[in-house]
User: Fold this.
Amino acid sequence: MTGYFIRRLLLIIPTFLGITLMVFAITRFVPGGPIDRALAQAQAASESAEFQSSRPGDSTSILSESQLNQLREYYGFDKPLLESYVQWLGKVVQFDLGVSTRYAEPVWQTIADRLPVSLYYGFVTLVLTYMVCIPLGIWKGIKHAGTFDHLSSAVVFIGYAVPGYIVGIALLTAFASEIELFPLGGFASDDFDDFTLWEQVKDIVWHSVLPLISYMVGSFAVMTFMVKNSLMDNLAADYVRAAMARGRTFGGAVWHHALRNSLIPLATHFGNNIGIVLTGSFLIETIFNINGFGLLGYEAVVERDYPVVLGILVISSMLFLIGNILSDLCVALVDPRVRFQ
Amino acid sequence: MAANLLDVDNLSVSFTTEAGEARVLDAVSFSIARGETLGLVGESGCGKSVTSLALMRLLPQPSGHITGGDIRLDGDSLLKKSIRDMHAIRGPRIGMIFQDAMTALNPVKRIREQLKESLTLHGQKLSKAAIQARCIELLGDVGIPEPALRLDDYPHQLSGGMRQRVMIAMALAGDPDLLIADEPTTALDVTVQAQILSLIQSIQAAHGMAVIFITHDLGVVEPLCQRVAVMYAGRIVETAPAQALFRDPKHPYTQGLLNSIPRLDREPLTPLPTIEGLVPSALNMPNGCRFAPRCPRATDRCTAEAPSMQTTSDRTLACHEVSL
Assistant:
């Protein structure tokens, strides 16, 4: 089994190369890159400056060929695709992700600034989702087709059907604007640094109630029903009946036998969640004015800030690849029948 | 104290389905003396397993329910017991083994943890060492080689026969008065079947417990059981001492069953006799004798009126056309 995981770890390398090469190539061919932007800016500047002279602006004549070459060199667009990819990769291996073209600061710095916010929302969402979905799914499974089951299904499905950002806007309108119960947005208050530790904790929680609800409302359905259906399958299994035939109570049979079996499907999803923790949702982040990964990634794509786009890609693809292996490991831990060769 | 260990008296069980109420057991009666082995024989779907689950009061919930009759263990009605009392009966009074030991064992728990339950669930205070010793002893008793090593195995690491032995050890751990064996050999190879059958026989001899042996395999019944009850479509059609039943089957259904056993002394290349037709659906049972649509001797009376049970000292029979 150790051999299997070593092989899986080694397989990360070609997969990672494939993903990054593809995105790297796309950044070369998609219009609107940094050169195009520089041209557009120069054209806009010259147009406004020479507005009176009525001479028609010609984009090729705005910047001289030598200026363009300088720009290409600056952005690394002067070399062939593979060569500059290898150059970029060589830096990545040394943990150098380059400099953001938009913020003119190291990509690491840009990412590190957003990391605490994203980690906080990611992990709290993850933990709360598990804490709600597992007990809820178990309860629904045991009380299948009862009033509680039907009512909670309705709530969960409505949550699943309504997009998180709609929920966010609704919550914001209702509980931050109409009733001023929660702040309108942001991760923490402006005078956060002057607070005592307790006040800081309270402040963050206060700010994060509405965004957290928006984040989680859609994720309840899948996990709750996975737990419920899996538990019901296991409740109908012979071994639960056999345990009761030995004198186990129904509750005892659920707790000692059905439960662990019904959590196996959850284990297969666990690793994937590690990747989701960091990706966030730019729409919810925009609505609540939270400076997290989702917003950063979205803006980097729109602004063609390729070093940041690639930097986020490096981190998220590594997390997904490691998350997949982690899922396998979790399954092997909870299910003794699973042995990877 | 009652003469019989177990009396099942006009037991009826219904299942609520989307298509309506299905009466799966209809006035089933039989009894077992202490130490006796009763074979409960019939086709798939005739209600054998439902009978065994009803005895344990483990019918699938919420669809299955007992609608009438009584089950008495040592004269004590099990249907009047609280659920809490039933927990104390399952295991120490009535043990059960299942058709497929692979699915009847929890796949993610070691044999030790599952076997231990039978020892510790009923209030006994045993030290860790005592539990370990008793587990090894139990596995040894059911003929598992190197029992101490097997305790650390998971069910999937054992063969089918070994798993069924583990199930038997679990039932034995409670030292029950009655063992319900629900087709315990159906999922096994023929040679392993024979081993498990002789194991059940020897255990029964050593512990003196009564056994209800549920099977569709008549070949297994004759050597193992003292008495046989034949079930058809939720009713018992005939009960008799095993030898008498095989020598002189009375009910047309029993005769049909015995005729359809392949025999070596038959003329080669002749078709195997079968019972024409299919078991009726529990949702749409014939009004009269339930076997009438398939019975070669059926008359108008059979389709109109359910036969009452004829009884002698050692046999019962439900048939209009044949008398004991």
Observations:
- DSSP finds twelve helices and twelve strands in chain B.
